[in-house]
Amino acid sequence: MRKRITFIHAADLHLGAPFRGLRALSETWANRLLTAIPEAYDRVVDAALARKVDFVVIAGDIFDSARASYGDYLHFFEGLRRLDKVGIPVYLCTGNHDPFTSWSRDFFAFPPNTLMLPADKPGFAAYRRDGETLALIGGRGYYNQTWPSDEDIAAGVTRAAAEQALADAVPDVAHAPFAVGVLHTGLDLDPVKAPTSPAALLRSGMDYWALGHIHMKYAHPSFDDPRLVFAGCIQGRDIKETGERGCFAVTLEEGASPALEFVPTASVVWQRMDVDVADCANVAEVTDKIMRELFRVNGKAHCEEMCVRITLTGTTPLHAVFARPGVLEDLRKHINDGYPSFFCDALVDATLRPYDKEALRREGLFPAVFLQVADALRADREDEIAYIQEEFLLKNIQLPSAYTRRIDDLAADAEDLVLGLLSRGDE
């Protein structure tokens, strides 16, 4: 029978993180979000218990601040103790937000199941089950809040180094079927925060690298063969961190690529949402359509509550209504009062007013000249594509092939955009 292990890979818990900018809009939602991060951490622990995993890995930034509160320490350690009661080990490293030097020895003593990997050098551990060593764990954390640019955080974290370091204490260490690396690193995605080479990690002899720091799900070479993996943060903190957030349940099996199962942990999900209101006859219909879209998006987000930034789009006579002072803010408040599980932090008008283009042509003013030029460009499709290609090349950007297939739609959108800009002086 092929040997197999399962574990939870989590990172970037950011316990104690503030939610800036919301308190002025809603005291209730600002307070709600303060509870969302500890709830997300509880769900990480719940996932490990429910799946009866072999162990848990936390790849740095457990706390958001180098001066974490006593309450945040208590909450984190309560989760560790829940895992300790059922014999699930926890391996963790420190990150740039909570480096090794910031952990207050007066606040804690780790329960027996927990090992913090060192920050001044690589550290190693062996996971054993039923008297057999099944996995080697190796990694290194942040010592200070910055990482020296002339040092590689992954240097020395290899399977061979783990076997050598553990040889005296673990007799069968060389026969362990799996090896897992743990780092808080920018990899090649963030050149400032302890970057390291993906190629070097792939040569290290580790079967799976549990990484932290990048706040989005990411796998290299791919999710079909995930060797270097970021689980992302467990709870989005602002509109920059949209979509579901969580951790990974990882399965390593002899002769197979690592298998990942994403486990959603965020009780509050941030979303950006465009709502086309071109078919709405009045503001009441706009409200109804927004609410329908909110329920649709929420149904796919695997969350209890949702913070959303809504952009109204489409060509509509209501464009002039939205431009009136106070209209969008009143609409935003009405949306927020309509259903307590949604909170709209901003409502943005990106609609366009409708134009009688034939009337503009007959006027003979600048819009008429612009429309004539647009018609001439549109008449020669190859010339139109060449023009766009040249603009992309000037910015050293490759023109996506999908753009050439949508050239007519893009031209129409550009035409409406310019007419909208020209009309602003009349509003």
Automatic annotation (TrEMBL):
Residues 6-216 form the Calcineurin-like phosphoesterase domain. The keyword Protein biosynthesis does not apply. CDD domains: MPP_Mre11_N (cd00840). Keywords: Hydrolase. It holds the Pfam family Metallophos. This is Metallophosphoesterase. InterPro entries: Calcineurin-like_PHP, DNA_Repair-Maintenance_Comp, Metallo-depent_PP-like, Mre11_N. It comes from the Bacteria. It comes from Gordonibacter urolithinfaciens. GO terms for molecular function: hydrolase activity. The keyword Nucleus does not apply.
